[in-house]
Write a structure and sequence with these properties.
Strand order of the largest sheet: 1-2
Strand content: 5-15%
Largest sheet: 2 strands, antiparallel
Structural class: alpha+beta
């Protein structure tokens, strides 16, 4: 079985892992009520998605 000839240095190891970090979710605001929501999701507060009521809520 092959074995590395040299130990991987900290610099090379960290350069390889530079893109492995987590990214923050990109929040947007609901056009109907202004609540912050994740993109491509219906608003949990008012139930609207792209200007239409898609989830029945107690308010409506």
């Amino acid at each position: 079985m092959p074995v590395p000839k040299r130990r991987t240095s900290k610099r090379v190891k960290n350069q390889r892992r530079s893109h492995d970090h987590l990214t923050k979710p990109q929040w947007s605001s609901c056009a109907n009520c202004g609540e912050t929501v994740l993109p491509h999701r219906a608003c949990a507060k008012c139930g609207f998605y792209r200007g239409r009521a898609v989830i029945p809520t107690k308010e409506s």
